[in-house]
Specification:
Helices cover 62% and strands 15% of the residues. With 184 residues, the protein is α+β, with helices and mostly antiparallel strands. The chain starts with a helix and ends with a helix.
């Protein structure tokens, strides 16, 4: 069993439980927004990630850090969920739990997830235009654009929609040229 499958097996029940509870109290979109913001904070703060992954750090310290960071940003239920993960020593799976939660809620809402990798941030107009193009390509009514920065692309962007990949990056073009030159 691969490490990714193992992580997904652990993450899926937590994500499903979150969805079930959020649906039962009619807070699915609010919990989704809160978890998206937590995921953003985790991806931008390597120090927080290191602290949460550190097995030597006590649970009470991890809980206090999470409380100070998120007490004004998320509702009590979401904060308590983070505390449960700390208590059960599953906080190291927080990223994948949130990703699985988002994936499942997007399936529930019939939303297409498009991952965008770019060297620079896109402005609002560019994002809206890209979403419209993706809607036309996928015949989807809702598109969630997940944006990540990747300086290795040199320029341009890569879009992943399910198993489809659209590579409009400079590094992709250079690789293609390199392969072409190597074969000749």
């Amino acid at each position: 069993m691969s490490n990714q499958n193992f992580k997904e097996k652990i993450a899926t029940p937590y994500a499903e439980a979150l969805i079930n509870y959020a649906q039962s109290v009619n807070l699915l979109s609010q919990v989704t927004d809160e978890l998206s913001s937590i995921l953003t904070v985790l991806s931008e703060s390597k120090d927080l990630e290191i602290l949460l992954l550190n097995p030597i750090m006590s649970r009470s310290v991890k809980k206090e850090v999470l409380k100070q960071l998120f007490k004004d940003q998320v509702q009590e239920f979401t904060l308590n969920f983070l505390f449960v993960l700390v208590d059960r020593r599953r906080i190291s799976f927080l990223n994948i739990i949130i990703q699985k939660y988002l994936e499942l809620t997007y399936v529930l809402e019939s939303t297409t997830i498009a991952e965008l990798y770019s060297v620079v941030d896109l402005n609002e107009l560019q994002q809206e235009n890209l979403i419209k193009k993706i809607q036309l390509m996928t015949n989807s009514t809702k598109v969630k654009l997940v944006i990540s920065k990747d300086p290795d692309l040199i320029g341009g962007f890569i879009i992943k929609i399910g198993s489809k990949i659209i590579d409009a990056s400079l590094s992709g073009k250079l690789k293609t040229m390199s392969l072409y030159l190597d074969t000749n």
